[in-house]
Amino acid sequence: MTRDDASRSALGRRRHPRLEIDGVLELRNVTLGVSLEVRDIGLGGFKAVSPRQVRPGDEHVLRIALPGDTPRELRVQVVHCQPAAGTKPPFLVGWQFASDTMTARHVVAILDHLTHVSAFESSKS
Fold this sequence. Notes:
- This protein has a single domain (19-124), classed as Beta Barrel (Thrombin, subunit H), CATH 2.40.10.
- Mean pLDDT is 82; it is low at 1-11 and 118-125.
- The protein starts with a helix and ends with a helix.
- By secondary structure, the protein is α+β, with helices and mostly antiparallel strands.
- The chain has 2 helices and 7 strands; from the N terminus they run H-E-E-E-E-E-E-E-H.
- It has a 6-stranded antiparallel β-barrel.
């Protein structure tokens, strides 16, 4: 299966499309005390690289600080976790956002920031 096929297959399982950002956004996993490098993000969740293995179903608190903004905390749940290559760290982790109002507001603010930055950068080229 090619990467495009995998992306189409994953999109078929998701309720919301994902924005590929490959490391532009970094979150701090408050629960584990580690940083996560976000690969893609959407209204329902995101995929990130983690130095630590996590268990599907576990709930975590993440912190993000957007430029010029106060830090925000997000409640998330692990959907899947697999080694990025072989059997050792780092791990690719799929996360689902909690359905509480504050997390939803923070996710919208993050996506707004990312799409605004993306639109600005593409207009500069």
